[in-house]
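Methyltransferase small domain-containing protein
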Amino acid sequence: MSLPTPQYKLSALRNGEVYEPAEDTFLLIDAIEKDIKVGVFPTNLEIGRIFQDIRSRQPQIVLEIGCGSGVVSTFVNQALHRKVVSIATDVNAKALECSLETARMNGVNLEVIRSDLDQGLQRLQGKVDLLLFNPPYVPTSEEAKSNIVSSFSHS
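Predicted structure tokens:
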């Protein structure tokens, strides 16, 4: 039985100013669901080590870097079946608005912070139990790096 994909509004994507959930988003959600259900989340970098179920780790703090629409953070919150402190960051203020709306639509509490990667989050160092990051991969020219384009590009 699959866990439901969080509800979100395309209109909330701010007329193309927020990265729309696409194949990469849904592949990440599928992988997270498999990790949560089957227990294939690595405990360390050694090949062949036994993996532990994410739920059994009882994460307290979940951080998503580059949250975009908020679909991934919302999904993880729903899938864990417990209260966690969930923080989502993005460089795009419109993405943060969209993430909050997605979380609200699905009954999830989400804290948002406008930040580039984990900049300004030093107090969380060593305290994040589950880190989510679906890095942007759209190549961009130097002059196009502003607002929405900068949140899509990795360069």
